[in-house]
Each structure stands twice: as structure tokens, then as C-alpha cells.
Fold:
Amino acid sequence: MKSFLAAFLLVAASVFAQTPSQKRPFTFEDMMKLKRVGAPVPSPDGKWVVLDCVHIDLEANTRISHLWIVPAGGGESRRLNPTPNHEERPRFSADGKRLIWTSKATDPTQIWMCDFDSGSGVLVGKPHQVTSISTGADGGIWSPDGKNIVFVSAVYPDCKDDACNKQRDEELKKSKVKAKIFSRLFYRHWNAFTEFKRSHLFVVSADAVATGPWPVPSGTPQQEQQPTGPRLQPRDLTPGDHDVPPFHLGGQDMYAISPDGREVAYTSNVDEVEATSTNNEIFVVPISGGAAKKISTSPGADTTPLYSPDGKYLAWRSQARAGFEADEWRLLVQNRQSGKTEDVTANIDSSVGSFDWSSDSSQIVFTAEEQGSHRLFWVTSTAQSGLRNIKGSNAWSADDLVCRNGRVWFSKASIRAPTEIGQLKSDKVDVVTGQAKELRFVDVTHMNDAVLSQIDMQPLESFTFKGANNDDVQGFMVKPPGFDHNKKYPVKFLIHGGPQGAWGNEWTYRWNAELFAATGNYVVVMINFHGSTGYGQNFTDSISGDWGGKPYVDLMKGLDYVEKTYPFIDKNREAALGASYGGYMANWILGHTTRFKCIVSHDGMFNAESAYGTTEELWFPSWEFGGPPWKKRDVYRKWSPHEYAQNFKTPTLVVHGQNDYRLDVSQGFDLFTTLQILKVPSKMLYFPDEGHWVLKPQNSRLWYKTVNDWVDQWCKR
Structure:
């Protein structure tokens, strides 16, 4: 029996040792199952974290956000407000007894409110609608005294009341004439025509309830309450023909309320031609109304003001140079009594991301990009005390910081996992030793563990080589699942946009390296060429005026290095893929080398001169090429891919969206027409309902399938 048992155990051990991993390659359908976790919103008592979380229904082609709640130290997440409505952006009152959020229970969106029981972590009673402004309400924040709510709404600047705005919108909607008349810029921005409306900050009493007819959303019994209370109209805090806040694509709020509830700090650009200016400024205005006062002085952009909890300081991010959107973001702190302003990040060569004050107002925690990840840093509220890096924060990228009572919550993501909420257990640092006291990282949410536990995700591998000017340049690699060193693999060579951007240890749904590697078994290679962020401002600056120069050299040398260093790379089966500036570089590559089997060019610049006249943010080409085309025609033509069309030979897939106003769809049509006339194998994927990014779920599925099929067609022969 003992001999039999021993033999059985040996055989069993051998069988189990040979059993392949139960994990499988990542698929697009897996990616759509992942919940898209929003920013953490901790309750003031530190017991709970509320967040919004987007759920994708691929077959219904919808993206809907719901409110979730989780114990602040980690645990099981659950829905907070179980309605079918799209709800996002929760915010607690300072006493933690009430919660507001933006809801699409109505069209347009409005601010809703409900009481909150921190003991059980549930909403108490029935939510009620706070605003009913015809132009919609979003971006709500509480005044610290709990008396008021400040929110954003886009209005016609010459309208004196909501009735005027409503009438204008209804006339526009009902008109059988869809023609538009422009007399200035911006007439369109990012992916929409502006109609020359302006975002303004409004204030409303926190005890107010919506005016007008009460919407009763069907199937949502929790929200079928007839509100009672004062029907107070919101008041415009920032009237005039300017945006407050200016256009932005998410991130930290660009406005804040002072701790005493009496003052609002906000960001606005009041230059005559905003399309040529990056000069956002910081203003303050009494919450009771009155004249605004400008307190920033930088010729570059100033944004995201945030008061210290004790009210003595106001911090914001600032750029030194006008007209350059990729200048380093410095962290400025102003003493509100003396007016003295100082740069507390003067001793780091990296851009400040999101930030927040410690509860005792003595320190600021912030993120900054370094070599492919967004790391956590601390700094005291005066520059003399120095800066400290928080060790251990480079295993992922952090954003959306919130400090409360000695703890820091933040969004964290990596190449292998989308955003979850993390926590740092201390917001105290010994400024003498630089050591954090009781430092510990905790995972708060686990919204995607169930899906990811089934997936064979590969690590991000870094390498460094000598690029242009013999400078060190960093690259990254993601291998396919089930990787075998003895095999040869084709390459997907991804080129990032910006151009002042970077690849790194981050998650993305639009250009996901893990999905590119898993689909068809490719090695994905990414290079942070000259112009990339996270390597010092001089490195970032080096691309301006040299779009097809050093970056192209870096890309080619990086690929040469990979081919020579890694024997599993099949240099005869390589595809180049890029979007935005990456699309430009794909077009540049098309005219300067034939080493790739195929190319994918998404929303890329093809004709630099015509791109100037069809883009909206004119400061960008003016900075990058040194001025407008009629002054710098030689520079525009030197770096314009269309000038090298006689060299085009590589099969190319062109992708463009009709609503892309950053790089007009005409750039894609121009490129595709040129390829067809030259009889270069080519195909165009055109989205009539997308902008610079492909966002709709089924459009995204088509995008990934078309792109990957194109690469397979030429690299799997």
C-alpha cells in the first residue's frame, strides 16, 4: 500500500506540474467587462469611500455610471443608490450628513442630494433634485460651512436669466435652418460646436430644491419624491463672455471654495483670442457676489486652485511659459494674508499632477510623472523645508489624490490592471529624515479582481538605449501570454501621441498594450522618444520644431536595439501604429522607411499647413512650428508628411473621426486619397460619430478588430 501510495503521489505531482495555467489571453470582451472606477470621495469621518463607476453594456452599446460605496480601509463594494439612472461625481457635505451628485434622471443633468448615515453607510430617505436650471448642472461642490453648493452650467453670456437661455436653446433646437454664423474663435472645440455658450460658476443654497415641474423618472421609486422647501434660483458668480472653468478633459477641479465659505477661487482665460492663448489665470470672488480679483501673475497657465484647510494658503499649478501647453506644472503656494507666492516644487524637474493638502495644512501630497509612472510626493507648505519622494509608489501610477485625517486615498492603475482605489495610511512625513511615519499602502477596492483573476496579464518590461544625440532613451515591452523564448514573434510598434506624452505603467482602454499583445500573439514595443514627458523639461522641449527629427531617430534606434537584443523578435514582421502625434509619426514613417510590413495611422496630421487652419487650439501649432504657416512656411513644409508622398509604399490603414476638431477629418481623407492614387494598399476606417478618441463600445470593438485584422493581414503572411 505504501509503495502504491508513493507511486500515485509521484504520478499526481507530475500531472499537476504539467497542468497549464487556467488563465487565458486577454480579449476585447474581457476589457468591456471591467468596471471603470472613478475618483475616491472619502466621508469626512474617514469611515467610507464613495465613488462613481462606469459599467459597459457592449450589446446595448451603452456606458452608464452608478454610485458605489466601500469601507475606507478596504472591503466589499456595493451600490449606494440602486437606480437605473446615470449618476456620477458624488461629494459629501463637510459634516458628512449629506451627499450630492450629478444625475441624468433628467435631461439635461442636474444636481441631486440625499441624507447620509455614516454609521451604516446608506442613504437616508429619498434623494431630491436640487437644481432645475435649463442649461443643466454639473461639477457640484459644497461650501465648507454647508450653506451653499457651487456648480457649473454653460449659458449664453448675454442672457440675464434662465428664461432667456431656455428660449435660445429651444429656438436653436426647433429651427429648420441648421446653418451657423461665426464671427470669432472658438466656433468649435474638441468634438462639438460651441454655439458661443460659456461655462459659468453658479451658487445655490444647499437647502434649495429644484424649481419648475418635478420630473418623476419611471422605474426609480427612490427618486419619486416631491421636494418641499425654498425654491431658490441659482446665482451666476462669474458673468461675462469667458469660460469658468476653461475647457479641459477631466482631472482636478479648476475651482474651490475657501474654508470659511466666503470666497471662491477659480480658473479662467480672459485673453482676447483664447484660441491662441494658454494663459489661464486664478481669480477670487466673494461667494455673495461682486467683482473678481486676479491673483496669479504667470504669463503661462495657472489652474486648479485649492485652499489649505486652515484657510491661510491657496495652492495651484502653474506654467512659466505662455503659449506652451506642455511646460512643466509647478506647485505654487500663496499666503492669503501677505500675498506672497512661492514655488514649493522648485527642486524637481517634473510636472505636478493632482494634489491635496494634509489635514493640518502643513504639507501637500501630489503626483508627478517620472520615467513611465506617476509617483507620489510630499512637500511642506514652504519651499525651504524640501521635497520627499514616497518610496514604493512606482509600482503603479497614481492620480485623484484626497487627504483626510492622516490618510491619503488615490486612484491607482498599472499596465496589468485598470483603476482601483488605494490608500496610504499616513500623511505625515519627518522632514528631517524624509521617512513617512507608519507608511502603508492598502487596496481599498477590488472591483475587477474577478475578471482579472482569469486573465494572463504580462508585466511591463523596461529597457534603455542610446537615441538621438547619444541620449539615454527609455522603451517598454509587453510580451504575449504563454510567451516562449525559443519562438519568433511579430511586433506591434506603438507610437504615443501628444507629442508631449509618454508610455508607461498605466492602463488605457483605447490603446491597450496587453490586448494588442494577446490578440494574435505579438510583442508590443513602445518608445518614449525625445519630447516625451517624465524625463525632465529639456527632454520634453526637444521635440518642438523638430517633429520628424530626434523622435524619428529614437524610434528607429529603439527598434534596432530591440531587434539586436532580443532573439525572439522577428524583424521581418513588424507593424507601426500610432494616433494623434503617433498618427503623424506613422505618416512620417510612411515617407521615410519601408522597414514595416504595414502601418496604422489614426487621427494623424498629414498636411501641416492645412492642419493649422482646421484645428481649434491654435497655440499648439504656433508653438510647435514657431508661428503660423505664412510666417514659417519652410518649417511646416519640412515636417509635413504629405511632402514625402512620392516615397509611400507601405500598406496603410487610415482611421479618423468626423467629430475630431483637434485634427480635422480632412487630414485622414487627404492621406487615404493620396494612398489610393499612388496605388499603395490601403483602407480607411471612418467614424461619423466619434471625435479624437473612439469611445462608443461597439465602435471600439470595430476599431480593435479592424486594426488587429489589418496587422495580421500583413504580418502573418
Summary: The chain has 13 helices and 39 strands.
